[in-house]
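Revision sheet: structure tokens.
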Amino acid sequence: MICRYFTAEEDRAFTASVLEYNDENCTDERRAMMEKGIRDRTALLLYLIPMRSLAVKEEDASAFLLDMQKDIGWIISSFRPTGASYNAYLTQLCRFRVMRFQRTKSRNERMENAMLFSDPTIFEPAVSEHCVPYSADADGSRIMRMDMKETASYIVRDRGRSSMALSNKEKQLSDMLVKPQQRRQFISYILALPQTESPGFIAGISRLLRTDIVAVSHLYTLRHEFLEMRSGKTIRTLEDVSGRHWKVMMQLRQAIWSETDGNARKVLTEKYRKLSGIYSRRRIELGKARAGMSHKEIALIFGVSRSAVSYGIKRMRLMIEAVAGGL
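Predicted:
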């Protein structure tokens, strides 16, 4: 039984064996005879202790052991007669190494999830031939002190006089965004979009509105901060959960592919089907969490009714689809 490895009697006996192994007077023959048993039992304890004493899940304990395999020789040779048992020594070592392992694991998962669930448009170049931002030498320091309501109002009012080369579709839409009402509807439309904007997209918005890129970038920064406070924790939780589901699904697919027993493959296939449904629901929830600002939230910015915002966004969407085929 597993518990026997943690009895006082077993602990004392194994502690004595490790001390004998490390003793400089131990002969090479004796050390060679003891080595495999000591290494194997140390590996087993490095797997059991995190689960027994540190509340580590079995799958993480297995990964932790794999991470520790290369250090087992050093762990054994570093044990000295200090009065503490070998189990106590390993437990103390595991406390520090498990914390480091979990931090590294969390960081790697965040990076993997960021790649797995991020919108590929974030890797667009910020500036290209067709997304050079509009610049009007605005007072950047004053704009950066504005809140979202002030920034949105500034963009509604501020339409630069200088022109720049625009494509035909850009010019058609830009010419429709002259009056304050249309500009307010357009800003409402982009504030309600999901969080997938890229630097090139923001530059394009400044071109259409003929508003300095500083003001448009600041508006998006404020929107990002608002949405982070509202949904950031939920998004990261859903990304973590979805990422774990995705990895298990890939493992199940590999197991299904390599399984030769028909009944076992049927069981694995059913598990994959159920998990795939759960994963799809998590992705839908993630999409909702990444939604832009609600019509009610936008209404508070402009001091109008929610129905007015909804009507304006619908009208602007139809206009954009008619002119440019959608943004």
